[in-house]
Amino acid sequence: MMIEQFKQDVLSGLSQTPKQIPSKYFYDKRGDELFVEIMNMPEYYLTRSEMEIFQKQSRDIISSFDVQKGEEIEVVELGAGDGTKTIHLLYELIRSRITFKYIPIDISSNALDGLEHRMKEEIPGLAIDSLHGDYFQMLHDLKKSPNRKIILFLGSSIGNMSDEEATLFIASLSKNLNKGDKIVLGVDLIKEKSVVLPAYDDAAGITRDFNLNLLERMNRELGADFDLDAFVHDPEYHESEGIAKSFLKSTKKQVVAIKSIGKQFVFDENERIHTEISRKYNDQILGKIIDQSPLSVQQCFTDQKNWFGDYIINRV
Ligand SMILES: C[S@@+](CC[C@H](N)C(=O)[O-])C[C@H]1O[C@@H](n2cnc3c(N)ncnc32)[C@H](O)[C@@H]1O
User: Fold this and answer.
1) Residues 225, 248, 199, 299, CA torsion sign
2) Are 181 and 149 within 8 A, CB to CB?
3) Tens digits of residue pLDDT in 223-232
4) Ligand 1 centre and the CA of 127: distance in Å?
5) Whose CA is closest to atom 20 on ligand 1?
6) Sign of CA dihedral 305, 306, 310, 314
7) pLDDT digits (tens, 9 = 90+) for 251-298
8) Does the model's pTM come out above 0.85?
9) Whose CA is nearest to atom 16 of ligand 1?
10) Residue 144 — very low, low, confident or very high, per pLDDT cuts 50/70/90?
11) Would you say 290 and 300 are in contact if contact means Cβ atoms under 8 Å apart?
């Protein structure tokens, strides 16, 4: 099922000009491992900044949920990854004696299995109900439960969408929320290139390996014959635009065959495959997206450097 979708997305993405591949395909087993390494790199300020918010302000974040005495809530995390920030929030919910169920959703079964194992070990007795799949497809299931939901969408994952996609995503998310539900939306804030670009172009070359792993994955899973020495990692960031972009650039004219798709793709010298965007936000950019939905921004928690923001958003 997943492999058919992968084939379709690769066929359609590499048939377009400019060529592109959806960033969700970064996350196979190797991709998950590399992303954990990325989060630990000195240049990758995003995780540290958001971690600081959850370590220092979880109590205030929980107050913003306005949980009533005796109320049970559901904490639904979209694209949960390794949950290292979320655990601080869960600990604080327990300390605050709030009854909750934790529902992480992730497309990577590997990430989800690891997360569930770790969470159960760290928080014995935790009510956890993991859902494996694409959160876009899981969204419609969310409305069923009568309990109020807190949707966590952290790590600036929304930044991997174009503004049009983010607007559609927020609109479809809000359709699956009930009045009183809330979203905690973690976004990277617009700042200067000297801070942003190294996060996508680190000295140790981990982001390069992460990007190139997409080609390796296609070789492995789709029978492609990408020559990894003939493509380079090519990131860029323009502060005025506020969007970091990653590309894989072909260093020569070449033809790549993908057996399982039964097609060949021609690459010119310096032709690029667009593999990822990372949108940086401010109040205005987020406001434009939220204004087109039945949601309103309640407040924003930021780290001390003001590099990262976790917005509390209400379904009104
Ligand atoms: C960049 S990581 C962020 C993880 C975590 N939210 C954090 O802040 O550290 C993105 C996670 O989302 C998952 N993911 C990406 N696209 C997804 C999708 N469409 N549906 C479900 N999970 C997805 C990936 O498997 C990965 O674990």
Assistant:
1) negative
2) yes
3) 999 999 999 9
4) 21
5) 134
6) positive
7) 999 999 999 999 999 999 999 999 999 999 999 999 999 998 999 999
8) yes
9) 24
10) confident
11) no
